[in-house]
Design brief:
The protein is of the alpha+beta class and 130 residues long. It contains 1 helix and 10 strands. It has one helix at 2-22; strands at 32-34, 42-47, 51-53, 56-60, 64-71, 80-81, 86-87, 96-102, 106-111, 119-125. The protein has a 5-stranded mixed beta sheet, with no helix packed on it. A 3-stranded mixed beta sheet has the order 4-10-9, with no helix packed on it. 25% of the residues are buried. Bound molecules: copper (II) ion.
């Protein structure tokens, strides 16, 4: 009898740990904000299937740019540019956030810290070209 109760306690504890592991969350870091952009913004979506669309953004190198991230998925995501020390923090399903930074030249990676492989690339394009 006592061992059965103990087994149940262990099972419930394991369930709690499993649920905690699924409860993705992160805190905002850097020049980020909740809600839509108030001015011009490059727009990107966190989409069904743990992917960003588009996964590649071409932005003007050396300029301060705001990226607006819309979570069109039914799971939470975030948007992090580690090289720039940015993380929107958790973007709940249906929510919108922005991240503002000066675009480096060349290739800069961004990602969702909750989902391995949910990544993308910012291409900082020299404005003197084209
Ligand atoms: Cu994600």
């Amino acid at each position: 009898m006592r061992s059965r109760i103990l087994a149940r306690v262990v099972a419930v504890t394991a369930l709690g740990v499993a649920l905690a592991a699924c409860n993705n969350s992160s805190d905002p870091v850097g020049s980020v904000a909740a809600g839509p952009a108030t001015g011009d913004a490059a727009k990107i979506q966190a989409a069904d299937g743990n992917r960003f669309t588009p996964a590649t953004l071409e932005l003007p190198a050396g300029e301060e740019v705001t990226i607006q991230i819309t979570n069109s998925d039914d799971a939470a995501h975030d948007f992090a540019v580690e090289a720039a020390g940015l993380n929107t923090g958790t973007i709940q399903a249906g929510a919108v956030a922005t991240a503002t930074f000066t675009v480096p030249e060349g290739t800069t990676k961004f990602k969702c810290t909750f989902h391995r492989g949910m990544t993308g690339t910012i291409k900082g394009v020299d404005q003197a070209q084209g």
